Amino acid sequence: QVQLVESGGGLVQPGGSLRLSCAASGNMFNINRMGWYRQAPGKERELVATITNDGSTNYADSVKGRFTIPRDNAKNTVYLQMNSLKPVDTAVYYCNAFRRITWNNYWGQGTQVTVSS
């Protein structure tokens, strides 16, 4: 139905920046919201940021003011711009797409972000 491919992860020093990309393909009809989740070792998956079709955004308190979630509708791509990165941001970041009409979630394969000196 929907395929999500993340890219842009890697190793960055504390205080640095990374920009993740999530390219969506397939049936994007009635995809109402896209976003990013992350999972650190030994921890539960958590919401990072979401953006709805009307452009409304939501951010976890832990990343508010540091991360943004821009979108390029023409490319069916959502980004996660991460600034002022901290070691606690280290996690596998997963792209998510939500289709409200069927209450379906779609997930990418994840991309590793490591923040370390």
Textual characterization of the structure:
- By secondary structure, the protein is mainly β.
- It is built from no helices and 12 strands.
- Strands 2, 4, 5, 6, 10, 11 and 12 form a 7-stranded mixed sheet that branches.
Summarize the helices and strands and which ones pair or pack:
Blueprint: E1 2-7, E2 10-12, E3 18-26, E4 31-39, E5 46-52, E6 57-59, E7 67-68, E8 71-72, E9 77-82, E10 91-99, E11 104-107, E12 111-115
Parallel strand pairs: 2-12
Antiparallel strand pairs: 1-3, 3-9, 4-5, 4-10, 5-6, 7-9, 8-9, 10-11, 10-12
Features:
single chain; 117 residues; 12 strands; 7-stranded mixed β-sheet; mainly beta; 5-stranded antiparallel β-sheet
Rounded mean pLDDT is 96
Topology as a string of helices (H) and strands (E): EEEEEEEEEEEE
The N- and C-terminal alpha carbons lie at a distance of 40 Å
Radius of gyration: 14 Å
Which residues form runs of ≥5 with pLDDT under 50? none
Helix/strand class:
mainly beta
Please state roughly what percent of the residues sit in beta strands, choosing from under 5%, 5-15%, 15-25%, 25-35%, 35-45% or over 45%: over 45%
Number of strand segments:
12
The helix content is: under 10%
* Biggest sheet record: 7 strands, mixed
Number of helices: 0
Net shape: globular
